[in-house]
Amino acid sequence: MAPLNLPFLNKTDSTLPGGVTRPTWVVLDLQGAYPARQPASPLAALLNRTETLEALEARVEKLRDAEWLHGVLVRFGGFAAAPATAHAVRGILGRLAQNKRVVAHLPQLSMTALIAASGATEIAAPESADVMLGGFAVESTFLGAFLKKHGIEFENLRIREYKAALTRFSQDHMDEANREQLSAYISGMESAWARDLAEARGVTEETARGWLSGNLTSAQGALDAGLITRIAYEDELVGPATRPMAAVLELFMPKKPSNAKAGRIAVIPLIGTIIPGKSRNNPVPLPLLGGPMAGSDTVTAALKRAKHDDKTKAIVLYVNSGGGSALASDLIWREVATSEKPVVVVMDEYAASGGYYVATHARHIVASPYTLTGSIGVVSGKPVMRDLFARNGLNPERVGNDRALMYSASRPYSDDERALIERSIGEVYDRFVSRVAAGRKLTPERVNELGRGRIWSGLDALENGLIDELGDLYTGIERAAELAGLPYDAPTWNATPKNHGPLPEFVQEAASVAQSAVTLDSLSLWPFGKERILTWFDQDVKVR
């Protein structure tokens, strides 16, 4: 964290004003993307230098309990969280504001920073603040024409019209169904934004929506419109009795021990594309391959450990995933559905397709208003490199049963193969619909209306009965405590597979990344192994 460039906050000047024995204000910096929890692996946690919501919550609790503290200045510098995470930060600051005066200082009045800052008592900005309030938008680059130009086509079989997981590879433009669902998702997010800011600033939602017109260009304009409460530079917001958080850590009382007698709550992350096998992470920025991958073996082993742990009375499954393998999603779903202990699912930025599938039989589902969820649909496909091979003198020869090579990239599907895959994905879709219907107490007909691959914002998902409540991980842990009959201060623990050692998995992960970086055969370009039926929503939806 960058130190405050203020003379009376320098470490060499630790003298407080006369008559003051302890600081009356503390400066809290918010920077980065704020993932929810520390990595479960001890080694990964040791190497992780990213600030988490878990750590922020712990610091804020210390500030709340400090009787000597009057207020907190929250500095937003390099805040890069997604809207769903920003909403969780909003909740953290809102709980702090119940006990202390909280002032948020924003050098940039951006959409996501304002979501988080709306939990503060006041919002201040410098006179020169950048104002970026054009609403939310999505931009997707379609690669169909580019790939075809280079001899690559993409087979895309899907159920149904809204299922857009592979369309950016198979098409050269956005189809109308995809445009419709993305427009509705953006509209839901802007409604949530207007509601959050209207509540914070004490205005109507209609007034808050007016702030999204793009006509606000300065901090003075934002102040006149009622969006912020003050124009001020940092040095105008703090006094000589103010100290940065790092300088006052020794003043905090030791944390009270959690109420562990009744039991504890397990928190299990499901982060990234859902795949068969073990979880891994690939930092190589390749389409379909990059980023974290949640392996069904790893997630189900963690669920089993929590289910068999005598001290654990409830489980929170924290999902940030656009889904993936239909098989892997179903195996995780089974562990949730068969748990005698209550399972609460908390949805982060994404809980779509397979990421929603795993949640259907949870006792309670919590999502952010900004969560992208739903996408109840199925897709299958493959790259076809026939023209690329021909242009470059590559000539695949076949021997044996041609059906055994139906997923080869050297040719398209035959009509019989395409019919076979369509029947198969139809069966998976029917199973998906039946899971949702049984878990959410809806008719299959209603689920099909909400399904067909369509995405929903968390706000719309609540209205349609796909989730139970709007909130964040804090909310989910509270609901888990209630369902298990535990006090709210019951301890939580990050559950991992039994006998989970950091070194073997770390080495295995590194080897996997190296292999992915150098292997270019058609199977390695498909991260789901031999399985081709997916409950997957391509996560190339970045809201700005």
UniProtKB/TrEMBL annotation:
UniProt xrefs under Pfam families: Peptidase_S49 (PF01343)
Matching entries from CDD domains are given as: S49_SppA_67K_type, S49_Sppa_N_C
Q: Which domain of life is it from?
A: Bacteria
User: Keyword annotations for this protein?
Assistant: Hydrolase, Protease, Serine protease
**InterPro entries registered for this protein in UniProt:** ClpP/crotonase-like_dom_sf, Pept_S49_pIV, Peptidase_S49, S49_SppA_67K_type_N, S49_SppA_C
Keyword hit for Protease: yes
Q: Where is the Peptidase S49 domain?
A: 97-238, 338-486
- Could you say which protein family the record assigns here? Belongs to the peptidase S49 family.
Q: Mind telling me what this protein is named?
A: S49 family peptidase
Originating species = Deinococcus oregonensis
User: What is the phylogenetic placement of the source species in the record?
Assistant: Bacteria, Thermotogati, Deinococcota, Deinococci, Deinococcales
